[in-house]
Amino acid sequence: MKEDNKIVFTGPVGVGKTSAIAALSDVPIISTDARASDMTINRKGHTTVAMDYGILNLEGGGKVHLYGTPGQERFDFMWEILTTGGLGLILMLDNTRPNPKKDMQFFLHAFRDYIVDVPVVIGISKTDLQARPSPRDYADMLPEVTADLRMLNPVPPIFEVDGRNKEDVKNLVLALLYSIDPGIGAGR
Amino acid sequence: MNPQTPKQCLKVQAIGMDGRKSAVFRMAFKMYSKRQFLLLEAGETEPADLAVADLDSPEAAAQLEDFVREHPGVPVLCTSVDPTTAQPWPVLRKPIRMETLFPALEALLTQTQAPKAPPQTPSAATHEPLVAAPAQPVAPADPAHQRPTPQTVPSPARQDIAANEVPPRPAPPPVVTLLPESVRTFDPEVGLLGLLLRVRRDKIPAAITRGRDDLVFILDPEADRVRTTLGDADIQTLCSEGEALHLRALKTSDGLDPREERELTLQALLWQVAAWSARGRLSQRIPLNGVVQLRQWPNLTRLPVLPESLRLSAFFARSPASPILTVKILQVQPSDLFNFLAAADSLELLRYGKESSASASKKPEDAGASAEESAKATPRRGFLGRILAKIAGL
């Protein structure tokens, strides 16, 4: 098996993707200038849009590439280059946004072809500011939101997370790994 | 002072690309760590080391022709929805992916590419995405950069010695088995757990006292809030059967010492109390050979940690399984499994038996089959295990 692989982080702007990748990456994350308001032409003449990249170096060689997609919905054309192969998708949702259910629907549909083959894990951020919907509420919404989707894991992990909290981010990734194979590390 | 030579930066000319497509390539180039690619700006006169052309844009043909005429010898990678388009250059099928783009660029750099005047019959190479880059790093054909190949094959004498020095394999871990006759059970409807379950079901603010007067918990199930002055050790003690606990309606006069009061969620309290009440025993609600499945994952980042809870959640979310089968497949300790099941059941996360659901698409025997398939995929499991170790150690 090719021992470089990737995890894609997605979700709306400001949800905590950058913090989450920074919590895991062994190298300083690569981010463009976070001019999140628009895909503008800057004075150099080219477009800028926020995206993040980090690396997990594994003992004995091999890497896991951590990709954070640009969060603005109109940049969804930029996601396609990332969505093949890989370990899975981590979808982060912001509970303080006006319609988190709609966000969940949008992102799961945007990655519909991807999540047929890889598991998805959902992290709900900013629940300290806005407690509802709760993870249970999101789980209850999921059948309706995903009625027309085929998902590798139709019962995904849905956790409250703070993207700045390393333990929360670790648990998202661990849940992803166990969703791929509950038997890894078993019997130790 | 001589500055260290920076990583070679290869300048890439975009042909037939609009702002959006260029932005995608810039993003991809930033994410590629093995080599530095830089997309040239429109109008920039710096010489390009290679070019990437989008054949599907209307102006691409003319721009490509101009580029090739002005920059003979500069290799070109083409992209198109139809890779059979007759081109002297390699063509990468759209949609472009990170996994195919960079091997194609690396392959291009290793080839001596010269434009051929007449279009040729598409070769087999243009029908498929270019193959992955060779395992060794790509290097320019410069004798100054070549090193003698190191001697990697040991001599026969050294091979004999090496064979005799093979370290012994570590002993496999003992196989965990679940003997039905050894399983003890407990009743989740008694004791502190039973009272908490009643509060959750009734959805009415309540108080729990030790004896008649010692107020220990004030509960608001609708708000998922519990107030208590007890520490974890005291709560664990209360979970022992035999403690005289009473449940009653909340009075307006009920209050706790604000200096010692702390607040928890009812979910977290239920989860922990269920595990402490189980103490490695199987809940009487769960038949040893009966199948259970998770209807939802527990919110594990906001619940007390239970051993193996992530693994067991992933397993039971995937397909229904009995406790006996679960121990056999996952090799978890029965006590950890029983504590987890009790905790999950306390939050009404378990689905029993053959209850139908859109998400319960797998049969119990699928759990065994899928686990066996997982066990066979040893290289992948090894790689996932290394990621697991890395993440757990962060």
TrEMBL record, chain A:
InterPro entries: Gliding_Motility_GTPase (IPR052705), Gpn (IPR004130), P-loop_NTPase (IPR027417). Transmembrane segments: none annotated. GO terms for molecular function: GTP binding; hydrolase activity. Signal peptide: none annotated. Pfam families: ATP_bind_1. Keywords: GTP-binding, Hydrolase, Nucleotide-binding. Gene3D superfamilies: P-loop containing nucleotide triphosphate hydrolases (3.40.50.300). Belongs to the GPN-loop GTPase family. This is GTP-binding protein.
From TrEMBL, chain B:
Residues 137-157, 359-379 are annotated as: Disordered. It comes from the Bacteria. This is Uncharacterized protein. It comes from Acidithiobacillus caldus (strain SM-1). The lineage of its organism: Bacteria, Pseudomonadati, Pseudomonadota, Acidithiobacillia, Acidithiobacillales.
